[in-house]
Amino acid sequence: FLRGAINNLKKSTTAIALGTTLAAGSGFALYAENPVAHADDVQIHPQEWPFPNQGLLSTWDAASLRRGYQVYREVCSTCHSMKYMAFRHMHHFYAKEEMNSLCEDLEIKIIGDDGEPTTRPAIPSDYFPPPYDNDQQAASANGGRIPPDLTNIVKAREGGRDYVFSLLTGYCEPPIGSSADDGTYFNPYFLGNAIGMAPPLNNDHQLEFHDGTEASVSQMAKDVTHFLDFACAPSEQNSKQFGLKAMMGAGILVALMGVAKRNRWSSIKNRTYKYKDH
Q1: How would you write 31-75 as a 3-class SS string?
Q2: 246 with 86: CB under 8 angstroms?
Q3: Fewest CB atoms less than 10 Å from the CB: which of 75, 167, 179, 250?
Q4: DSSP labels for 103-166?
Q5: pLDDT tens string 46-83
């Protein structure tokens, strides 16, 4: 018995030593392939910001959505499209007359009856017109890069609305020992830290909100992020309302089932048997 225990101990020690050697060799090979982690390759993860529609009982901020659409229309739409967003989706925070007025200021490119390109005023059922006719034109106007469509940008990026807000407000000078290439800008929230988009928002009276709110960088970033979050799911409020109704209905149903079960089985559960001796 003692001899068998000694042999098993030797085998275990040999296996541990072999595993340690293999792990060390793998680590050395990985280090040899990627010996240094550069600061430019590190991406800062955004913190969580308190947006109005967080939580089951919260809803969209109509005033913020209006300002966010204004920021998109006057700033972002010069380069970025929202081809899956229709004007009719904004009925949550614009009255019908206001929506029609917004559409009248925009032109939609169509093919006329004569087969030639022409334009007409937009209507609520139209989708947002793109800033460029095709990808080649977009790339040519932006240094070879095609600006991404913003309809689902909040859902398409890790971190969601927190990432978009942090990106818009995170432009800064490169730290000592780091630099941005020509045609790029330093942003610690962007992967690689070098982003081709120039800072889109600034404090130099870039725009004036219709409701008189001060158009600071953080305010514009918050409002346009809120609008882009809305664009990802315009029917989110309806889903929340349906979910609350379903939960209330389920609660009432469970209570009724409990009462029915108690009424049906109470006579059986409380039944007693008495045996008589003969």
Answers
A1: HHHCCCCCHHHCCCCCCCCCCCCCCCCCCCCHHHHHHHHHHHHHC
A2: no
A3: 250
A4: HHT-EEEEE-TTSSEEEEE--TTSBPPPSSSSHHHHHHHTTT-PPPP-TTHHHHSTTHHHHHHH
A5: 888 888 887 777 788 999 999 999 999 999 999 999 99
Average per-residue pLDDT for the chain: 83
Sign for the CA dihedral angle at 65, 67, 70, 76 comes to negative
Contact of 107 with 123, CB cutoff 8 Å: no
Instruction: Please write the tens of the pLDDT for every residue from 140-150.
Output: 998 888 999 99
Closest listed residue to residue 54, CA positions, set 162, 195, 176: 162
The answer to whether 87 and 128 are in contact (CB under 8 A) is yes
DSSP 86: B
Enter the DSSP assignment of 81: -
Task: Return the closest-CA partner of residue 190 out of 176, 175, 207, 169.
Answer: 169
Token reading at 14: 């040999």
Strand partners, 86: 127
Q: Which residue has the tokens 């960088």?
A: 217
Q: What is the dihedral of CA 93, 96, 98, 104, to 10 degrees?
A: 130
Distance CA 184, CA 181 (A): 6
Backbone angles phi and psi of 93, in degrees to 5: -135, 5
Beta bridge partner(s), residue 109: 119
* Residue 224 φ/ψ, nearest 5 degrees: -70, -30
pTM of the entire predicted model = 0.74
Structure tokens at 229: 């979050």
From CA 202, how far away is CA 216, in angstroms rounded? 7
Find residue 195's DSSP bridge partners. Answer: 185
Helix or strand run (H / E) with residue 251: helix 236-269
